[in-house]
Design goal:
This protein is of the alpha+beta class. It has a single domain, classed as RelE-like (YaeB-like fold, 2-Layer Sandwich). It has 2 helices and 4 strands; from the N terminus they run αββββα. It has a 4-stranded antiparallel beta sheet. The longest helix has 13 residues. It starts with a helix and ends with a helix.
Length: about 60
Amino acid sequence: MEQSIREAINKIAEDPERTDLDIRPLSGQPGYRLRVGGWRILYVLEETGLTVKVVASRGSAYKA
């Protein structure tokens, strides 16, 4: 799973407008949610690039 998460983050960093990954805007806060299996990657796009805020299992990702 760790490799899948790394690959997904790298894909987003290369092309933030990809449509082949499960990405949704976050509700109530800036940024996006990327789903990789039972894991969630919460990140924001900035002028300098992609900043990953949280990598956590589904149940705990939104509590951070």
